[in-house]
Amino acid sequence: MTKRLPLFEVYRWAVAAEPSCWSEVEDSFLSAMWKIDKPLVPGGADNSIRQRGRGSFFAGLTALLVENSSGKELRGGGTAPGLILPKHSLETSYSSKDILELLIETKGGQQPDFRSKLSAGTAREPNYRRPPGFLGQRAAFRAIDLKAKWAHSATPEGGTPRDLMTWLRRSKPSVFLFLAIRVTEGKNFDFVLASAEAVSRSVNGVGIVAYEPSPGNDAYRSLRVPPHLEIDRILSRVCTALHVLP
After folding, report:
1. Is 49 part of any domain?
2. pLDDT tens per residue across span 81-105
3. Domain assignment of residue 166, given as a range
């Protein structure tokens, strides 16, 4: 609980201050993350408790920003059926007349350990680690399955798409993914960006918060991401989508 106290303090401050964009909370977010991460060895893996705490904090903070900006009340948790899987767990969502209209997914933590088969050994060797898949692949599959279920229910033909990318953009629910990733190596930052580009083909938008230790190793500093992946830009798109919903 002591380790998570800085996160609680920042969230409590945000509830009272009612910020509506990431730029208003970024400094407080980075400061809180640094306070709980200081015991970590640079480049080391997180323990699961710390990882879950950071992820929940980022999810809650993102949802708060959306609610403050859009004026809509979001739902935390719940489930929804897919076309392939009978039930998907939802993180943060908005529904209208029992129709899932919008889903927000988040992932917070350290970028995956990026080691190839050549450097980590073969699959039969004890030190082998499977090369990581792209970040957000579960969110990508969930988006496709939920949209396919809606299309199948809404149209007699099952919403068979002629243009898959256009169909994914137009089908319900709108799905947005937000990533808060602590970067320890340059090549891993490239991997994070490549993952975001891959996921963006199946969801309606991906926003990234990327940060790294400062040169003096006494704080975190944010990393610049391409404009179309900036978190405030995607938060604005989420709020625009919510504004037109009842």
Report:
1. no
2. 998 899 999 999 999 988 999 999 9
3. 69-243
